[in-house]
Specification:
The chain has about 80 residues and is mainly beta. It has a five-stranded antiparallel β-sheet, covered by helices on one side. It is globular.
């Protein structure tokens, strides 16, 4: 298993409000795809995965119309 710092951002749906909820945590996971599937299992969710040049894994998620971003950075 690898250790990651995770950043979970939930974007505000209000048009003129740029604030977002941000949660930072440390997790140990073997498979980030499985972690995302488990975290959003109760929602009608779709996501797009990308890997940044520094190795950070980013999931852009649409969970029942709520846009979110979940990032994994290995520590």
């Amino acid at each position: 298993m690898k250790s990651y710092e995770t950043i979970w951002e939930i974007f505000n749906k209000c048009p003129n409000n740029q604030m977002r909820d941000v949660f930072i945590d440390e997790v140990e996971v073997a498979d980030t795809d499985a972690y995302i599937r488990q975290k959003f299992q109760d929602k009608n969710a779709t996501w797009e995965k990308s890997v940044l040049p520094d190795g950070t894994i980013v999931y852009d998620i649409n969970a029942s119309g709520i846009l979110q971003r979940f990032s994994f950075t290995e520590i």
